[in-house]
Each structure stands twice: as C-alpha cells, then as structure tokens.
Amino acid sequence: GCRLISTKQSIPAVLTINGKDYKTDSWTNITPTIQGLTERSLHLSESHPIGILRSLIEERFNGLGYTFYNDFKPVVSTYENFDSLGFPIDHPGRAKTDTYYVNETTLLRTHTSAHERECFTSCTTPGYFISADVYRKDEIDRTHYPAFHQMEGGRIWSRDEYGDKLESKLLEDIAKIPQTDIIVEDSHPPFEDSNPKQDYMTDRETELVGIHLKKTIELLVNEVFNEAKKSAKLAGSEEPYLNEPLKVRWSPDYFPWTSPSWEIEVWWKGEWLECCGCGVVREQVLTNSGIKNTIGWAFGIGLDRVAMLLFGIPDIRLFWTLDERFHKQFHNGKISTFKPYSKYPGTIRDIAFWVPSVEEKVHINDLMEIVRNEAGDLIESVKLVDEFTHPKTGRNSQCYRINYQSMDRNLTNEEVNLLQDSIRDTVRAQFNVELR
Ligand code: FA5
Ligand code: MG
Question: Which family does it belong to (predicted)?
Fold first, then answer.
C-alpha cells in the first residue's frame, strides 16, 4: 500500500512516444528516462549484442515456416497486454507499481505476448517470431533494468485445413524439426491435473503440439548455446563443458493464456538457467483473434540475460550505454567476448525515513523510479537494507542504500551530494515521510 501524491508530480497533458501523441491521466507514470528508452530499438541494431542474438536465432528458423516481426512499437492497449490474454482484473502485473502506463487504457507492453492476437491474425505463414523491447517497473541491479528484450514465437494448425489428417500433419511437422544432440530431462506427462489440457483439444493433439513446441525451443537454445561454446573455444578456453552436449530440463509452469504450460532451464557453467516460458495457446486467445477451430503453441524468451552470458557482459545496463568502448567491440553475426574497460569507483549513500503507518509504506518500485529519474544510469544499485515498525507508535522506518557509480567516468563527491539531495527533496515532496 503506497500513496503517490500525484498533484505534486508534474505530468504533461500530452506525452509523445514514437512520434504519436497520447493524452495523460491519473494513470500516467512514464518518466522522461523511460520515454527516452522507447526510441533506442537495440534489437534492430545488427552490431549490438541484442541484435546479433536476434539475427542468430532468426537465421536458424529461416525457411521453417515463420514470419519475423521486429517493428512493433512499445505502446499497446491495456486490452492487448492483459485482457486479451485472460489476465485476471486483480493480477499484480497490472498495478501502477509494476507497469508503465501512458494512460488508463494504454501502456508500454510488459511482454511480447501483447502482440499474439495481432501476429496470429496477420501472419500468412504457419508461425511467427517477434522481437521487441519490453518494459517493467523493477529493481535496478546488474541483471535488472526497467527495459529489456523478448523474443516470442507462435505456431498454429487449423483443423478445418487438415481435417482427419491433422495428426499426421503434426507428426510430419515434428519430423521436419532439425535434430540436435541435446540431453533433455523431461519427467512430466504431456499434461496433468495441475497443468491441464484444454477441453477443446484431444489428448493426442495436446501431446503432439507440446512435442512440436518443446523440440522447437530445444533447437533454439541448442543453437544459441552451441554458438556460445564455439566462441569460447575460439577465444582459447579449454573447459570440459565446451565439449559436452547441452543439457536442459522441462518443468510445468503457469500463464493465463496457455495450458498446459512449461518452462525450460538450461544447464550452463554449473547452474540451471531459467530461459523461457511457453505453452499450448488457450482457445480464447485464438477466438479473440477471429481464428476458429485451430490449435497451437507460443513461447517467450528473454534476450538480455542470454546475451549477457554469450557475450560475457557483466552488467545489463551496458547494453544501453552510448560509450564507444562498448559498441566498437561487437560486429554483425559474431559472438565475441566483452573486454571490460576500466571501472570507476562507487559511492554509497543511505536514505532513511519514517512513515506514519505500515499502510503508507513507500513501494520499493516507486523509490527506484525517483532514484532513476534523478540520477539515471549513475545508479549501480538500490537496496532496502533496513525496515522496522515501532511497536508502540506503529510508525514504519525504511532505509535504502544507493550505490552511485558511472560506467564511463569518476563521480565527484559534490555531484553525488547534489543527486542525493534532489532524491531526498523528491521523496519528501511525493510521500508522507519524515526523512531521518
Ligand atoms: C513472459 O513474459 C511471458 N510472456 C512468456 C510466455 C510467452 C509464456 C508465450 C507463454 C507463452 P516471464 O515474465 O517469465 O514470461 O518472462 C520471460 C523471460 O523474460 C524470463 O524467462 C526472463 O528471461 C526474461 N525477464 C523477465 N524479467 C526480466 C527483467 N527484469 N530483466 C531481464 N529479463 C527479464
Ligand atoms: Mg518466469
């Protein structure tokens, strides 16, 4: 429970994003920093790690029946992002603390699934891939940034088109997926009570769509991680894992618009890496798109964390830097290992405050937002280091630790003090707090 006192925020009457004007309202929470990110389109740059990874995957699936969409702009309707996919009205992802709203009915997509309807309707091939920038209000640290990239795939089969040959068509399409030597741990049945098949599909349809989906994703991750192994070997590494087949495991997952649903994890340098969510598309998503008597699958993979591994990039914010020392290291179609340039020292400052009651606690994402606005990419991390409620007065105290660190220069103490002062001023102006 947090309360933003919106009268104290200066929100323009009109927001311009990607050349379009939008009327703002009490839901608007897009800041100039975030607005700036919507113009970058890193996934379209052929010599940026995100763009290189995107092309690598697209090349693997070229000729296998997919259309590639890369130009969808980040502003979508609340309906497309949530309602069309069956998100319940009280889903936490809809909160203003989690999502960037342009206004009540318009927002910055939080995932590429916002385009499932559009892609399924407009694509003339059996399947599609879409890559795009997505936005979530989130913490800031080495692996979290309020903007990141997803690639989503979808594929459908029309019962009207294949009639009683649908099963053999599915088997034929499964056989067409190139084989890999990947080791797959998959101990779950095609569906179970906790991860059910849909009533409109037969057991056999569910099983075969699931197999096609899993084999497709296995091909994708095998391609990407084998490419990473090749480049590590070229760079002279002789670690044993480089000569072993890739190992993955499947487990059940949940998404409002797929059932059954799964997640794939990849065993990489001694750890299971969460890579991608997926499932058999719910009938309602297809019928909402005007597509009847059709079955299919969808998956969504985060590109940034995978690119960090492939290119040896230690901090997700480096993707957004304008520093030439970063960009000159990467080239079209090539996975290379990032060579860190000098790091500049960080400066720690704490901000601590009282609120009258637990109900008026400042939401961590709102604090992050203020910090990000005042200091942008000069923030290495923000952490809640202490919180307690006074047993007698009920007052609540929070202490946040901010690490100021630039990726391209030394920060002076005076500069950090100014930033810290403006953050304190903004927190004081926007929340019912007593700074300590
Ligand atoms: C989704 O976003 C679903 N749309 C995926 C999907 C598509 C499921 C189609 C079913 C069918 P999720 O929130 O788990 O799911 O995010 C997918 C991936 O995005 C994660 O596995 C992770 O790799 C990446 N990701 C999520 N949050 C962040 C973040 N803050 N920074 C970087 N990557 C992130
Ligand atoms: Mg997840």
Answer: Belongs to the class-II aminoacyl-tRNA synthetase family.
**111 alpha carbon, closest ligand:** 1
Q: Nearest residue CA, atom 31 of ligand 1?
A: 144
Mutate to test the pocket of ligand 1, among 150, 257, 304 (most ligand atoms within 8 A of CB): 150
Q: Tell me the three state secondary structure of residue 288.
A: helix
**Does the pLDDT at position 6 exceed 50?**
no
Helix, strand, coil percent values for the chain (each to nearest 5):
35, 25, 35
109 in contact with ligand 1, CB cutoff 6 A: no
DSSP state of 141: B
Strand duo 183-185 + 247-252: pairing: parallel
Lowest pLDDT segment from 155-169, 212-226, 277-291, 370-384 = 370-384
Residue 6 covered by a domain: no
424 inside domain: yes
| Whether 377 and 294 share a structural domain | no
- Domain extent for 29: 14-327
Kindly report the CATH number assigned to the domain that includes residue 137. Answer: 3.30.930.10
What is the CATH classification number for the domain harbouring 363?
3.30.70.380
CA-136 nearest atom, ligand 1: 30
Domain count, the chain: 2
Q: Candidates 34, 50, 85, 111: which one to mutate for ligand 1, based on the most atoms within 8 Å of Cβ?
A: 111
Judged by its nearest atom, the ligand closest to the C-alpha of residue 81 is 1
pLDDT tens-place string over residues 425-435: 999 999 999 99
Using pLDDT thresholds of 50, 70 and 90, give the confidence band for residue 299. very high
pTM beyond 0.90: no
Which has the closest alpha carbon to 5: 26, 20, 30? 26
- Provide ipTM, 2 decimals: 0.96
